[in-house]
Write a structure and sequence with these properties.
With about 120 residues, the chain is mostly helical. Helices cover about 75% and strands about 0% of the residues. It has one domain (about 1-120). α1 (about 1-20) runs antiparallel to α2 (about 35-55), α2 packs antiparallel against α3 and α3 runs antiparallel to α5. About 20% of the residues are buried. Keywords: Membrane, Transmembrane, Transmembrane helix.
Length: about 120
């Protein structure tokens, strides 16, 4: 689910940069400098993070965390530059919470399996 969300975010940024969405008003050549820096970075980070999360490799979570932090900074710390958008930081926090819950559940399940396998108990 989280990998699909990352892929969706990445495709949104690509659609914006090539002029497919927002009626072409957010093409790369029409963006201000802050958007020219962040939008391409996020357009690359999100799909690559999606692949990493799908393959369950550690760098996927690291790249997703970097992209989420960039988005949160954009809309919470610098809303005068990037505009106000309360939904994107909220979605990032929700997805991060979901990811932590899943990782904790997997860790607890692995721990429970280790206890069942032990035969050296008295």
């Amino acid at each position: 689910m989280i990998a699909a969300t990352c892929f969706w975010f990445g495709m949104q940024y690509w659609a914006m940069l090539v002029g497919y969405s927002l009626e072409g008003r957010a093409r790369f050549d029409l963006l201000d400098l802050p958007w020219r820096v962040t939008a391409p970075a996020l357009a690359v980070l999100f799909p690559v993070a999606s692949l990493g999360l799908w393959l369950a490799v550690p760098w996927g979570a690291v790249l997703w965390t970097m992209a989420a932090i960039i988005q949160i900074l954009m809309y919470v710390v610098w809303p005068e530059i990037f505009g106000e958008n309360h939904l994107v930081p909220l979605l990032n926090v929700l997805v991060a919470s979901l990811y932590v819950v899943f990782r904790l559940a997997l860790w607890l399940e692995g721990r429970r399996k280790e206890e069942k396998v032990r035969i050296d108990s008295p």
